[in-house]
Amino acid sequence: MNTTFEKDVIAGLTAPEKQLSSKYLYDANGSRIFQEIMNMPDYYLTNSEFEILALQAKQIVEACGFNKPFNIVELGAGDGFKTFKLLEHLVAENVAFNYMPIDISKDALDMLSKSLSNRLPGLSIKPQVGDYFEILAEMSETATPSLLLFLGSNIGNYLKEDALDLLKLFNSTMKTGDKLLIGMDLKKNPITIKNAYDDKDGITKRFNINLLIRMNRELEADFKLDDFDFYCYYNPETGRVKSYLVSLKQQSVLFKKLNKTIHFKQNELIWTELSKKYSLPEIEKLAAISGFEIKEHFLDCKHFFTDSLWEKP
Ligand code: AVJ
């Protein structure tokens, strides 16, 4: 039987317009390269969201308006670097809450729990290893109010319909009065956006080429890394950054493990990622269609990014 990765690769590379899901960019190496991306000065998203959580933690928590102990549930916690500021504020104010980071990677959660319990000894942390929705479904059984965190513009990776489905699914697991704090990157000067993804140092290129390395290793493929390049563009009309690998010549790649050969034409593309940028009216529409009421948008001082607080009515 083929794994999901194998099935997705076959389907994606035999489609008329080749594509691979961006979730496959994050193997151990890819996650490390993504850390490098987050440290690039031109990748403004990191600093913008950090500023929001550092300077407006108090306002965000007040806007939640919980008057009893609550859970902060973080979906795809990553390294928890940004969330730290929010947690730090709550611990300093003696607010009663549990922090429940959810991730499919037990290693990532172990690392996060360790570093957080060192830096914030007063924090009650309950890591949850597993699938988002199973854990969210379990939590909807309890009477404790929840604040869901879906930060970092992760929603930007989803196509419109998929984003809606995901938000509706969040909504269906939430109780009346529960909140969702969702990080979204805003439309802005297109040059600023282009520079965040098309970096001069080629870190984002390495992030994408790593997907070929991953297929070489896990699927016994024979991609020649020098025969592919990286291309991305931002379309300010649609708000979409689209990223691609480009085949620099006509070539065939053998996937030994799958007993399959894939042909590439010269300049043929593999679409690897969507990074959608929103306007505030678009965000308001998305919230309404997925059954939420917007409490407040928390923007950074440059108005590059929003952490928007939504309520389940
Ligand atoms: C982690 C999905 C938010 O789309 O901005 C960064 C990933 N890709 N540079 C994004 C990414 C290229 C990132 N997200």
From TrEMBL:
Keywords: Methyltransferase, Transferase. Pfam families: Methyltransf_33. InterPro entries: EgtD, EgtD_Methyltrsf_superfamily, MeTrfase_dom, MeTrfase_EgtD-like, SAM-dependent_MTases_sf. Residues 5-311 form the Histidine-specific methyltransferase SAM-dependent domain. Its EC number is 2.1.1.44. GO terms for molecular function: L-histidine N(alpha)-methyltransferase activity. GO terms for biological process: methylation. NCBIfam families: egtD_ergothio (TIGR03438). This is L-histidine N(Alpha)-methyltransferase. It comes from Bizionia sediminis.
